[in-house]
Design a protein that fits this description.
CATH class: Alpha Beta
Shape: globular
Number of domains: 1
Low-confidence stretches: 1-12
Distance between the termini: 42 Å
Largest sheet: 9 strands, mixed
Structural class: alpha/beta
Strand content: 15-25%
Mean pLDDT: 93
Radius of gyration: 25 Å
Number of helices: 13
CATH superfamily: Alpha/Beta hydrolase fold, catalytic domain
Helix content: 25-40%
CATH architecture: 3-Layer(aba) Sandwich
Order of helices and strands: HHEHEEEEHHHEHHEHEHEHEHEH
Number of strands: 11
CATH topology: Rossmann fold
Length: about 525
Protein backbone atom coordinates (compact mmCIF):
# COMPACT_ATOMS: atom_id res chain seq x y z
CA UNK A 1 0.00 0.00 0.00
CA UNK A 2 2.88 2.38 0.87
CA UNK A 3 4.48 1.67 -2.52
CA UNK A 4 1.21 2.45 -4.32
CA UNK A 5 0.84 5.69 -2.35
CA UNK A 6 4.40 6.77 -3.20
CA UNK A 7 3.84 5.98 -6.88
CA UNK A 8 0.59 7.96 -6.85
CA UNK A 9 2.31 10.96 -5.26
CA UNK A 10 5.12 10.68 -7.79
CA UNK A 11 2.60 10.56 -10.64
CA UNK A 12 0.73 13.60 -9.28
CA UNK A 13 4.01 15.46 -8.92
CA UNK A 14 5.10 14.66 -12.47
CA UNK A 15 1.66 15.59 -13.84
CA UNK A 16 1.67 18.91 -11.99
CA UNK A 17 5.20 19.57 -13.22
CA UNK A 18 4.18 18.92 -16.83
CA UNK A 19 1.08 21.09 -16.51
CA UNK A 20 3.21 23.88 -15.06
CA UNK A 21 5.16 23.86 -18.34
CA UNK A 22 1.94 24.40 -20.36
CA UNK A 23 0.68 27.91 -20.92
CA UNK A 24 -2.92 27.26 -19.91
CA UNK A 25 -3.99 30.70 -21.12
CA UNK A 26 -3.73 29.45 -24.71
CA UNK A 27 -6.52 26.90 -24.20
CA UNK A 28 -10.14 26.90 -23.06
CA UNK A 29 -10.17 26.51 -19.27
CA UNK A 30 -11.07 23.09 -17.92
CA UNK A 31 -14.66 22.97 -16.73
CA UNK A 32 -14.97 21.25 -13.37
CA UNK A 33 -18.51 20.03 -12.70
CA UNK A 34 -19.83 17.78 -10.03
CA UNK A 35 -21.83 14.85 -11.37
CA UNK A 36 -25.07 16.60 -10.47
CA UNK A 37 -23.99 19.82 -12.19
CA UNK A 38 -23.11 17.94 -15.36
CA UNK A 39 -26.40 16.03 -15.24
CA UNK A 40 -28.33 19.30 -14.80
CA UNK A 41 -26.40 20.87 -17.67
CA UNK A 42 -27.41 18.07 -20.03
CA UNK A 43 -31.06 18.32 -18.98
CA UNK A 44 -30.93 22.05 -19.67
CA UNK A 45 -29.45 21.48 -23.13
CA UNK A 46 -32.23 19.02 -23.91
CA UNK A 47 -35.02 21.20 -22.56
CA UNK A 48 -35.94 18.69 -19.84
CA UNK A 49 -37.47 20.14 -16.68
CA UNK A 50 -38.39 16.86 -14.99
CA UNK A 51 -37.08 13.30 -15.30
CA UNK A 52 -38.88 10.30 -13.89
CA UNK A 53 -36.78 8.90 -11.04
CA UNK A 54 -35.15 5.51 -11.23
CA UNK A 55 -36.61 2.49 -9.47
CA UNK A 56 -35.31 0.89 -6.29
CA UNK A 57 -33.93 -2.63 -6.15
CA UNK A 58 -35.42 -2.97 -2.66
CA UNK A 59 -38.84 -4.60 -2.94
CA UNK A 60 -40.06 -2.84 0.23
CA UNK A 61 -39.45 0.68 -1.10
CA UNK A 62 -42.46 2.61 -2.45
CA UNK A 63 -40.71 3.13 -5.80
CA UNK A 64 -39.52 -0.46 -6.12
CA UNK A 65 -38.70 -2.05 -9.47
CA UNK A 66 -41.34 -4.08 -11.26
CA UNK A 67 -40.96 -7.86 -11.25
CA UNK A 68 -44.45 -8.68 -12.50
CA UNK A 69 -44.26 -10.17 -15.99
CA UNK A 70 -47.84 -9.03 -16.64
CA UNK A 71 -46.57 -5.43 -16.52
CA UNK A 72 -43.15 -6.00 -18.08
CA UNK A 73 -43.98 -5.33 -21.73
CA UNK A 74 -45.86 -2.03 -22.15
CA UNK A 75 -44.88 -2.08 -25.86
CA UNK A 76 -44.29 -5.75 -26.66
CA UNK A 77 -43.76 -5.33 -30.41
CA UNK A 78 -40.05 -4.76 -31.11
CA UNK A 79 -38.72 -2.73 -34.04
CA UNK A 80 -38.21 -5.24 -36.84
CA UNK A 81 -34.48 -5.75 -37.23
CA UNK A 82 -34.94 -6.67 -40.91
CA UNK A 83 -37.19 -3.78 -41.97
CA UNK A 84 -35.62 -0.51 -43.08
CA UNK A 85 -36.79 2.89 -41.93
CA UNK A 86 -38.76 3.33 -45.15
CA UNK A 87 -40.56 0.03 -44.55
CA UNK A 88 -38.63 -2.13 -46.99
CA UNK A 89 -37.96 -5.75 -46.01
CA UNK A 90 -34.31 -6.81 -45.91
CA UNK A 91 -33.85 -10.17 -47.58
CA UNK A 92 -30.20 -10.20 -48.70
CA UNK A 93 -26.83 -9.77 -47.03
CA UNK A 94 -26.10 -6.88 -49.38
CA UNK A 95 -29.18 -4.99 -48.16
CA UNK A 96 -28.10 -5.62 -44.57
CA UNK A 97 -24.56 -4.33 -45.00
CA UNK A 98 -25.35 -1.43 -47.30
CA UNK A 99 -28.62 -0.11 -45.88
CA UNK A 100 -30.02 -1.61 -42.71
CA UNK A 101 -26.82 -1.91 -40.69
CA UNK A 102 -25.79 1.73 -41.33
CA UNK A 103 -29.30 2.84 -40.32
CA UNK A 104 -29.02 1.01 -37.01
CA UNK A 105 -25.53 2.32 -36.30
CA UNK A 106 -26.76 5.87 -36.89
CA UNK A 107 -29.73 5.42 -34.56
CA UNK A 108 -27.64 3.91 -31.76
CA UNK A 109 -25.07 6.68 -32.09
CA UNK A 110 -27.63 9.48 -32.07
CA UNK A 111 -29.99 8.27 -29.36
CA UNK A 112 -28.28 5.67 -27.18
CA UNK A 113 -24.47 5.52 -26.99
CA UNK A 114 -23.28 8.69 -28.70
CA UNK A 115 -20.92 9.48 -31.53
CA UNK A 116 -17.15 9.18 -31.61
CA UNK A 117 -16.00 12.63 -32.76
CA UNK A 118 -14.21 12.96 -36.08
CA UNK A 119 -11.30 14.72 -34.37
CA UNK A 120 -10.61 11.95 -31.84
CA UNK A 121 -6.80 11.84 -31.46
CA UNK A 122 -4.52 9.08 -32.60
CA UNK A 123 -3.03 6.71 -30.03
CA UNK A 124 0.63 5.71 -30.04
CA UNK A 125 1.49 2.40 -28.37
CA UNK A 126 4.66 1.52 -26.51
CA UNK A 127 5.68 -1.69 -24.75
CA UNK A 128 6.91 -0.52 -21.35
CA UNK A 129 7.83 -3.85 -19.73
CA UNK A 130 8.27 -7.38 -21.08
CA UNK A 131 8.47 -10.17 -18.50
CA UNK A 132 8.75 -13.96 -18.67
CA UNK A 133 6.56 -15.56 -16.02
CA UNK A 134 4.68 -18.70 -15.04
CA UNK A 135 0.90 -18.61 -14.61
CA UNK A 136 0.03 -21.83 -12.84
CA UNK A 137 1.96 -24.38 -14.87
CA UNK A 138 2.03 -22.34 -18.08
CA UNK A 139 5.09 -20.32 -19.14
CA UNK A 140 4.05 -16.94 -20.52
CA UNK A 141 5.29 -13.65 -21.88
CA UNK A 142 3.61 -10.70 -20.18
CA UNK A 143 3.81 -7.20 -21.63
CA UNK A 144 2.71 -3.92 -20.14
CA UNK A 145 1.62 -1.72 -23.03
CA UNK A 146 0.73 1.97 -22.80
CA UNK A 147 -1.27 3.82 -25.45
CA UNK A 148 -0.75 7.58 -25.37
CA UNK A 149 -3.41 9.73 -26.99
CA UNK A 150 -2.13 12.75 -28.89
CA UNK A 151 -3.06 15.70 -26.69
CA UNK A 152 -1.24 18.39 -28.67
CA UNK A 153 -4.57 20.12 -29.37
CA UNK A 154 -5.33 20.32 -25.64
CA UNK A 155 -2.33 19.48 -23.43
CA UNK A 156 -4.24 20.17 -20.21
CA UNK A 157 -5.61 16.61 -20.38
CA UNK A 158 -3.57 13.42 -20.83
CA UNK A 159 -4.95 9.99 -21.68
CA UNK A 160 -2.68 6.97 -21.30
CA UNK A 161 -4.44 3.67 -21.94
CA UNK A 162 -3.01 0.90 -19.75
CA UNK A 163 -3.18 -2.76 -20.72
CA UNK A 164 -1.27 -5.99 -20.13
CA UNK A 165 -0.97 -8.76 -22.71
CA UNK A 166 -0.25 -12.33 -21.56
CA UNK A 167 0.45 -15.12 -24.08
CA UNK A 168 1.61 -18.71 -23.50
CA UNK A 169 5.10 -19.61 -24.72
CA UNK A 170 4.49 -23.37 -24.78
CA UNK A 171 2.23 -22.91 -27.80
CA UNK A 172 3.28 -22.27 -31.36
CA UNK A 173 1.88 -18.85 -32.21
CA UNK A 174 0.34 -16.60 -33.12
CA UNK A 175 -2.54 -17.31 -30.73
CA UNK A 176 -6.15 -16.14 -30.25
CA UNK A 177 -6.53 -13.48 -27.57
CA UNK A 178 -9.46 -12.43 -25.40
CA UNK A 179 -9.47 -8.78 -24.34
CA UNK A 180 -11.07 -8.20 -20.94
CA UNK A 181 -12.04 -4.99 -19.17
CA UNK A 182 -10.41 -4.83 -15.74
CA UNK A 183 -7.41 -3.68 -13.72
CA UNK A 184 -4.20 -4.79 -15.44
CA UNK A 185 -1.43 -6.36 -13.40
CA UNK A 186 1.41 -8.74 -14.09
CA UNK A 187 0.11 -12.20 -13.16
CA UNK A 188 3.32 -13.58 -11.64
CA UNK A 189 6.29 -11.19 -12.00
CA UNK A 190 9.64 -12.90 -12.45
CA UNK A 191 11.87 -12.64 -9.38
CA UNK A 192 15.60 -11.99 -8.99
CA UNK A 193 17.92 -14.94 -8.52
CA UNK A 194 19.24 -15.65 -4.99
CA UNK A 195 22.53 -13.99 -5.95
CA UNK A 196 20.77 -10.87 -7.21
CA UNK A 197 18.51 -10.87 -4.17
CA UNK A 198 21.58 -10.86 -1.92
CA UNK A 199 22.89 -7.75 -3.69
CA UNK A 200 19.50 -6.07 -3.42
CA UNK A 201 19.34 -6.74 0.32
CA UNK A 202 22.89 -5.50 0.87
CA UNK A 203 22.08 -2.26 -0.94
CA UNK A 204 18.74 -1.92 0.85
CA UNK A 205 20.40 -2.37 4.27
CA UNK A 206 23.00 0.23 3.38
CA UNK A 207 20.31 2.71 2.35
CA UNK A 208 18.37 2.11 5.58
CA UNK A 209 21.46 2.62 7.71
CA UNK A 210 22.27 5.86 5.86
CA UNK A 211 18.71 7.05 6.44
CA UNK A 212 18.65 5.97 10.09
CA UNK A 213 22.02 5.02 11.72
CA UNK A 214 20.14 3.15 14.47
CA UNK A 215 19.39 0.46 11.90
CA UNK A 216 23.05 -0.62 11.93
CA UNK A 217 22.75 -2.04 15.46
CA UNK A 218 19.52 -3.83 14.58
CA UNK A 219 21.03 -5.53 11.53
CA UNK A 220 24.11 -6.53 13.59
CA UNK A 221 21.74 -8.03 16.18
CA UNK A 222 20.04 -10.14 13.46
CA UNK A 223 22.85 -10.77 10.96
CA UNK A 224 20.99 -13.46 8.96
CA UNK A 225 17.81 -11.41 8.53
CA UNK A 226 16.98 -10.36 4.98
CA UNK A 227 14.34 -7.58 4.77
CA UNK A 228 13.41 -8.51 1.18
CA UNK A 229 12.57 -12.15 0.48
CA UNK A 230 11.54 -14.09 -2.61
CA UNK A 231 7.99 -15.27 -3.07
CA UNK A 232 7.49 -19.05 -3.09
CA UNK A 233 8.30 -20.61 -6.46
CA UNK A 234 5.52 -22.41 -8.36
CA UNK A 235 5.09 -26.02 -7.24
CA UNK A 236 4.71 -27.92 -10.50
CA UNK A 237 4.26 -31.20 -8.67
CA UNK A 238 1.31 -30.06 -6.57
CA UNK A 239 -2.06 -31.53 -7.55
CA UNK A 240 -4.37 -29.20 -9.51
CA UNK A 241 -6.68 -27.12 -7.30
CA UNK A 242 -10.24 -28.35 -6.84
CA UNK A 243 -12.89 -26.76 -9.02
CA UNK A 244 -12.47 -24.66 -12.11
CA UNK A 245 -9.20 -22.90 -12.78
CA UNK A 246 -9.34 -19.09 -12.95
CA UNK A 247 -10.61 -17.90 -16.32
CA UNK A 248 -7.20 -16.59 -17.35
CA UNK A 249 -5.56 -19.95 -16.61
CA UNK A 250 -8.25 -21.74 -18.60
CA UNK A 251 -7.49 -19.51 -21.57
CA UNK A 252 -3.74 -20.13 -21.32
CA UNK A 253 -4.23 -23.88 -20.90
CA UNK A 254 -6.28 -23.89 -24.11
CA UNK A 255 -3.51 -22.10 -25.99
CA UNK A 256 -5.11 -18.66 -25.87
CA UNK A 257 -3.67 -15.37 -24.67
CA UNK A 258 -5.49 -12.59 -22.90
CA UNK A 259 -5.35 -8.83 -22.51
CA UNK A 260 -6.57 -6.83 -19.54
CA UNK A 261 -7.37 -3.22 -20.44
CA UNK A 262 -8.11 -0.59 -17.81
CA UNK A 263 -11.33 1.31 -18.63
CA UNK A 264 -10.51 3.96 -16.01
CA UNK A 265 -7.40 4.88 -17.99
CA UNK A 266 -9.69 5.67 -20.95
CA UNK A 267 -12.63 7.39 -19.28
CA UNK A 268 -13.74 7.79 -15.66
CA UNK A 269 -16.84 5.91 -14.55
CA UNK A 270 -18.73 8.97 -13.30
CA UNK A 271 -20.43 12.09 -14.59
CA UNK A 272 -17.90 14.45 -13.01
CA UNK A 273 -15.22 12.90 -15.22
CA UNK A 274 -16.93 13.72 -18.52
CA UNK A 275 -14.80 16.85 -18.94
CA UNK A 276 -11.69 14.69 -18.45
CA UNK A 277 -10.52 11.42 -20.02
CA UNK A 278 -10.80 10.86 -23.75
CA UNK A 279 -14.25 12.53 -23.88
CA UNK A 280 -12.89 15.61 -22.14
CA UNK A 281 -9.73 15.64 -24.25
CA UNK A 282 -11.69 15.77 -27.50
CA UNK A 283 -14.04 18.42 -26.07
CA UNK A 284 -11.09 20.44 -24.72
CA UNK A 285 -12.37 20.22 -21.17
CA UNK A 286 -15.90 21.39 -21.97
CA UNK A 287 -19.24 19.66 -21.23
CA UNK A 288 -20.76 17.22 -23.70
CA UNK A 289 -23.37 17.99 -26.32
CA UNK A 290 -26.44 15.67 -26.49
CA UNK A 291 -25.06 13.46 -29.29
CA UNK A 292 -21.55 13.15 -27.80
CA UNK A 293 -20.36 9.74 -26.70
CA UNK A 294 -20.75 8.37 -23.21
CA UNK A 295 -18.42 6.17 -21.17
CA UNK A 296 -19.61 2.88 -22.75
CA UNK A 297 -18.71 4.11 -26.21
CA UNK A 298 -15.44 5.58 -24.92
CA UNK A 299 -14.41 2.29 -23.30
CA UNK A 300 -15.33 0.50 -26.52
CA UNK A 301 -13.23 3.01 -28.49
CA UNK A 302 -10.29 2.32 -26.15
CA UNK A 303 -10.68 -1.41 -26.69
CA UNK A 304 -10.57 -0.85 -30.45
CA UNK A 305 -7.37 1.16 -30.04
CA UNK A 306 -5.96 -1.74 -28.03
CA UNK A 307 -6.84 -3.95 -30.98
CA UNK A 308 -4.82 -1.58 -33.17
CA UNK A 309 -1.78 -2.55 -31.12
CA UNK A 310 -2.59 -6.27 -31.13
CA UNK A 311 -2.63 -6.19 -34.93
CA UNK A 312 1.07 -5.30 -34.78
CA UNK A 313 2.16 -7.94 -32.24
CA UNK A 314 3.53 -11.13 -33.88
CA UNK A 315 2.49 -13.22 -30.85
CA UNK A 316 -1.20 -12.47 -31.51
CA UNK A 317 -3.53 -13.78 -34.20
CA UNK A 318 -5.30 -10.46 -34.79
CA UNK A 319 -8.08 -12.17 -36.76
CA UNK A 320 -9.03 -14.11 -33.62
CA UNK A 321 -9.29 -11.37 -30.98
CA UNK A 322 -12.38 -11.31 -28.76
CA UNK A 323 -13.81 -8.85 -26.24
CA UNK A 324 -15.22 -9.74 -22.81
CA UNK A 325 -16.86 -7.94 -19.92
CA UNK A 326 -19.35 -8.35 -17.06
CA UNK A 327 -22.04 -5.94 -15.85
CA UNK A 328 -21.23 -2.39 -17.02
CA UNK A 329 -18.21 -3.81 -18.81
CA UNK A 330 -20.49 -6.42 -20.39
CA UNK A 331 -22.41 -3.47 -21.84
CA UNK A 332 -19.15 -1.96 -23.08
CA UNK A 333 -18.00 -5.27 -24.57
CA UNK A 334 -21.25 -5.61 -26.53
CA UNK A 335 -20.99 -2.01 -27.76
CA UNK A 336 -17.37 -2.64 -28.78
CA UNK A 337 -18.23 -5.78 -30.73
CA UNK A 338 -21.26 -4.19 -32.39
CA UNK A 339 -19.40 -1.12 -33.65
CA UNK A 340 -15.93 -2.62 -34.27
CA UNK A 341 -16.15 -5.44 -36.79
CA UNK A 342 -12.50 -6.42 -36.27
CA UNK A 343 -13.45 -8.10 -32.99
CA UNK A 344 -14.02 -11.71 -34.02
CA UNK A 345 -16.08 -12.66 -30.98
CA UNK A 346 -17.59 -11.44 -27.74
CA UNK A 347 -18.39 -12.90 -24.33
CA UNK A 348 -21.09 -10.64 -22.93
CA UNK A 349 -21.60 -11.26 -19.22
CA UNK A 350 -24.65 -10.15 -17.19
CA UNK A 351 -24.91 -6.92 -19.15
CA UNK A 352 -28.50 -5.93 -18.27
CA UNK A 353 -30.09 -2.66 -19.40
CA UNK A 354 -27.88 -0.73 -21.80
CA UNK A 355 -26.38 -4.07 -22.84
CA UNK A 356 -28.25 -7.15 -24.05
CA UNK A 357 -31.52 -6.52 -22.18
CA UNK A 358 -34.36 -4.80 -24.03
CA UNK A 359 -34.64 -1.08 -23.21
CA UNK A 360 -38.43 -1.06 -23.56
CA UNK A 361 -38.90 -3.91 -21.08
CA UNK A 362 -40.21 -2.65 -17.73
CA UNK A 363 -38.67 -5.27 -15.45
CA UNK A 364 -35.97 -4.66 -12.85
CA UNK A 365 -33.58 -1.96 -14.02
CA UNK A 366 -35.39 0.57 -16.21
CA UNK A 367 -34.45 3.31 -18.63
CA UNK A 368 -35.08 5.72 -15.75
CA UNK A 369 -32.22 4.13 -13.81
CA UNK A 370 -29.80 4.67 -16.70
CA UNK A 371 -30.81 8.32 -17.05
CA UNK A 372 -30.45 9.20 -13.38
CA UNK A 373 -27.31 10.94 -12.14
CA UNK A 374 -25.61 7.66 -11.20
CA UNK A 375 -25.40 6.02 -14.63
CA UNK A 376 -26.30 8.59 -17.29
CA UNK A 377 -22.62 9.11 -18.12
CA UNK A 378 -22.57 5.66 -19.74
CA UNK A 379 -24.95 6.86 -22.45
CA UNK A 380 -25.31 9.72 -24.93
CA UNK A 381 -26.98 12.80 -23.50
CA UNK A 382 -29.91 12.21 -25.86
CA UNK A 383 -30.75 9.03 -23.97
CA UNK A 384 -32.09 11.18 -21.12
CA UNK A 385 -35.05 12.08 -23.34
CA UNK A 386 -36.52 8.62 -22.83
CA UNK A 387 -37.27 9.22 -19.16
CA UNK A 388 -38.49 12.79 -19.61
CA UNK A 389 -41.72 13.47 -17.75
CA UNK A 390 -41.81 17.20 -18.53
CA UNK A 391 -39.82 18.83 -21.31
CA UNK A 392 -39.97 21.07 -24.36
CA UNK A 393 -40.72 17.97 -26.47
CA UNK A 394 -43.24 16.42 -24.09
CA UNK A 395 -43.04 13.04 -22.39
CA UNK A 396 -41.09 10.03 -23.65
CA UNK A 397 -40.41 6.47 -22.47
CA UNK A 398 -38.28 3.55 -23.64
CA UNK A 399 -41.13 2.64 -25.99
CA UNK A 400 -40.27 5.74 -28.04
CA UNK A 401 -36.80 4.44 -28.90
CA UNK A 402 -36.55 3.51 -32.57
CA UNK A 403 -33.97 0.80 -31.79
CA UNK A 404 -33.49 -1.77 -29.07
CA UNK A 405 -30.91 -4.23 -27.82
CA UNK A 406 -31.87 -7.06 -30.17
CA UNK A 407 -30.58 -4.82 -32.94
CA UNK A 408 -27.35 -4.13 -31.05
CA UNK A 409 -26.77 -7.89 -30.80
CA UNK A 410 -27.63 -8.19 -34.49
CA UNK A 411 -24.87 -5.69 -35.31
CA UNK A 412 -22.41 -8.35 -34.11
CA UNK A 413 -23.59 -10.85 -36.75
CA UNK A 414 -22.26 -13.09 -38.15
CA UNK A 415 -19.37 -12.99 -35.65
CA UNK A 416 -19.30 -15.19 -32.56
CA UNK A 417 -21.50 -13.74 -29.82
CA UNK A 418 -21.99 -15.52 -26.47
CA UNK A 419 -24.61 -14.01 -24.13
CA UNK A 420 -23.97 -15.13 -20.55
CA UNK A 421 -25.94 -14.78 -17.32
CA UNK A 422 -26.07 -16.31 -13.85
CA UNK A 423 -29.07 -16.80 -11.60
CA UNK A 424 -30.72 -14.46 -9.07
CA UNK A 425 -30.41 -17.04 -6.26
CA UNK A 426 -26.61 -16.74 -6.47
CA UNK A 427 -26.42 -12.96 -6.92
CA UNK A 428 -27.08 -12.30 -10.62
CA UNK A 429 -30.06 -10.23 -9.63
CA UNK A 430 -33.50 -10.20 -11.26
CA UNK A 431 -32.66 -6.50 -11.71
CA UNK A 432 -30.72 -7.51 -14.83
CA UNK A 433 -33.80 -9.00 -16.51
CA UNK A 434 -32.26 -12.19 -17.87
CA UNK A 435 -35.45 -12.88 -19.79
CA UNK A 436 -35.24 -9.52 -21.53
CA UNK A 437 -31.77 -10.47 -22.78
CA UNK A 438 -32.97 -13.85 -23.95
CA UNK A 439 -35.83 -12.29 -25.93
CA UNK A 440 -33.36 -9.88 -27.52
CA UNK A 441 -31.03 -12.74 -28.43
CA UNK A 442 -33.92 -14.66 -30.01
CA UNK A 443 -34.95 -11.64 -32.11
CA UNK A 444 -31.36 -10.95 -33.18
CA UNK A 445 -30.96 -14.47 -34.55
CA UNK A 446 -32.74 -13.61 -37.80
CA UNK A 447 -29.76 -11.50 -38.88
CA UNK A 448 -27.26 -14.23 -38.05
CA UNK A 449 -29.22 -16.62 -40.26
CA UNK A 450 -29.50 -14.05 -43.04
CA UNK A 451 -25.71 -13.76 -43.05
CA UNK A 452 -25.15 -17.51 -43.21
CA UNK A 453 -24.50 -18.14 -39.50
CA UNK A 454 -26.45 -20.19 -36.99
CA UNK A 455 -28.37 -18.76 -34.07
CA UNK A 456 -29.73 -20.49 -30.94
CA UNK A 457 -31.47 -23.15 -32.99
CA UNK A 458 -35.01 -22.11 -32.16
CA UNK A 459 -37.46 -19.78 -33.91
CA UNK A 460 -36.94 -16.03 -33.92
CA UNK A 461 -40.42 -15.42 -32.56
CA UNK A 462 -39.63 -13.61 -29.32
CA UNK A 463 -43.33 -13.47 -28.47
CA UNK A 464 -43.60 -17.25 -28.05
CA UNK A 465 -40.13 -18.60 -27.25
CA UNK A 466 -39.55 -19.41 -23.58
CA UNK A 467 -36.24 -18.91 -21.79
CA UNK A 468 -34.76 -22.36 -21.15
CA UNK A 469 -33.80 -23.61 -17.67
CA UNK A 470 -30.37 -22.67 -16.34
CA UNK A 471 -27.47 -24.85 -17.48
CA UNK A 472 -29.13 -25.37 -20.87
CA UNK A 473 -26.41 -25.27 -23.53
CA UNK A 474 -27.43 -23.27 -26.60
CA UNK A 475 -23.99 -23.39 -28.18
CA UNK A 476 -24.47 -24.89 -31.62
CA UNK A 477 -24.32 -21.62 -33.54
CA UNK A 478 -22.29 -18.46 -33.87
CA UNK A 479 -24.90 -16.86 -31.60
CA UNK A 480 -24.90 -18.59 -28.20
CA UNK A 481 -26.75 -18.37 -24.89
CA UNK A 482 -26.03 -20.00 -21.56
CA UNK A 483 -27.28 -19.26 -18.06
CA UNK A 484 -24.92 -20.75 -15.50
CA UNK A 485 -25.78 -21.51 -11.88
CA UNK A 486 -23.49 -18.88 -10.34
CA UNK A 487 -23.73 -15.20 -9.51
CA UNK A 488 -22.80 -11.88 -11.11
CA UNK A 489 -19.89 -13.20 -13.13
CA UNK A 490 -19.24 -15.05 -16.36
CA UNK A 491 -16.48 -17.24 -14.87
CA UNK A 492 -18.61 -20.44 -14.70
CA UNK A 493 -19.26 -20.16 -18.44
CA UNK A 494 -15.60 -19.97 -19.48
CA UNK A 495 -15.24 -23.76 -19.66
CA UNK A 496 -18.07 -23.70 -22.21
CA UNK A 497 -17.08 -20.49 -23.98
CA UNK A 498 -13.49 -21.51 -24.73
CA UNK A 499 -14.22 -24.79 -26.58
CA UNK A 500 -17.19 -23.16 -28.33
CA UNK A 501 -15.05 -20.27 -29.57
CA UNK A 502 -12.10 -22.54 -30.40
CA UNK A 503 -14.34 -24.72 -32.56
CA UNK A 504 -15.93 -21.90 -34.52
CA UNK A 505 -12.63 -20.05 -34.95
CA UNK A 506 -11.13 -23.28 -36.29
CA UNK A 507 -8.17 -22.80 -33.98
CA UNK A 508 -5.91 -25.78 -33.46
CA UNK A 509 -3.42 -25.50 -30.64
CA UNK A 510 0.09 -26.57 -31.60
CA UNK A 511 2.68 -27.07 -28.87
CA UNK A 512 5.96 -25.22 -29.26
CA UNK A 513 8.99 -27.35 -30.03
Amino acid sequence: MQTKTLLLLLWVGVTQSLLAQVDASKYPPLVTFTTQQDHDNMKQQLGITKLRPGYSGNDTDPNHANYDEALADPCPKLPDVLTTQNGKKVSTAEQWWNQRRPELLEAFEKEVYGRIPKNVPKVSWEVKVTDREFVGRTPVIAKQIIGTADNSAYPLISVNINMILVVPTNVKGPVPVLMMFGRPSFPAPAQPSPEDMEKINATFKEMMINTNPEMKAIFEKYPAYQPITRLPAPNFFAPPPAGDLPSTEQLLAAGWGYVTIDPASIQADNGAGLTRGIIGLVNKGQPRKPEDWGALRAWAWGAARGLDYLETDPLVDAKKVGIEGVSRYGKAALVAQAFETRFALGLIGSSGKGGATLHRRFFGEAVENLTGSGEYHWMAGNYLKYSAEESSFGKKTGCDLTVDSHELIALCAPRLTFISYGIPEKGDSRWLDQKGSYLATIAAGAVFKLLGANDLGVSNDYTTEKMPPMLTDMLNGELAWRQHDGGHTDAPNFKYFIPWATKFLKYERKNAQ
